[in-house]
Amino acid sequence: MPLIAAPNGGPLFYAESGPAAARPVLLLHAALQTHESMAPLVEVLEPLGVRLVRPDLPGHGRSELPGGGLKALSIGGMADAVETLIDRLGLGAPLVVGYSLGGIVGIELGLRGRAAGLAVLASRIRPAAGARATFAPESIRQRSPLWARQLAEKHVATPWESLAAALGELLATWPGFDSAALAALPIPLLVVQGDRDQMVPLEQGRELARLAPGGSFRLVPRAGHPELLYREETRVAVKDFIGKLLC
């Protein structure tokens, strides 16, 4: 799978499928995940005949960190790297689907005018006060030793423990999005969230959908944060949203 040179940093790894001349759809994964985690959406979107592009966000998987290393990790920096990918591949203003951290980066791209439509799955718009504890490596090991072993296998460019700690710091100190900017978001927006999300307050998803002029909200019953991507209701909602934008 290919790599591109990201701005002020190392290579950005990505995968793609579908016709090269088709409408591009960019799939952005969650924190501590990789492009492979978006496979449930690939399965439902491929029949639409779109071009699917899935990067590993900076520091994740095989993508290296920007110049300055972990201290330089930021939402804006991740968006910069994805913008470079968009430009290098000639994607124009793709449709974007982002899950959790990927949704935050997707919102940033939308605010920059680099997305033609945006589906946001379980993504916050305000900082996470408890992010340092949630992403503390020792806490992750205690909660799920199996997941810790999987993280070590997934993240080959940056040790997962260092990445997790940096993400916790980032999400705790990130200022969030300006409400006035969200109220001027000029693209169709779908927000999907589970009613049992333990990481993103439900009111943040509702607020985003309410603020954005083209926003709509879909609640998935009995879905927490980790499993939202795998729920059939989520996949149908995203497929229907992307399908309408293709017409």
TrEMBL record:
Residues 25-231 form the AB hydrolase-1 domain. Keywords: Hydrolase. SUPFAM superfamilies: alpha/beta-Hydrolases. It holds the Pfam family Abhydrolase_6. InterPro entries: AB_hydrolase_1, AB_hydrolase_fold, AB_hydrolase_sf. This is Pimeloyl-ACP methyl ester carboxylesterase. The lineage of its organism: Bacteria, Bacillati, Bacillota, Clostridia, Eubacteriales.
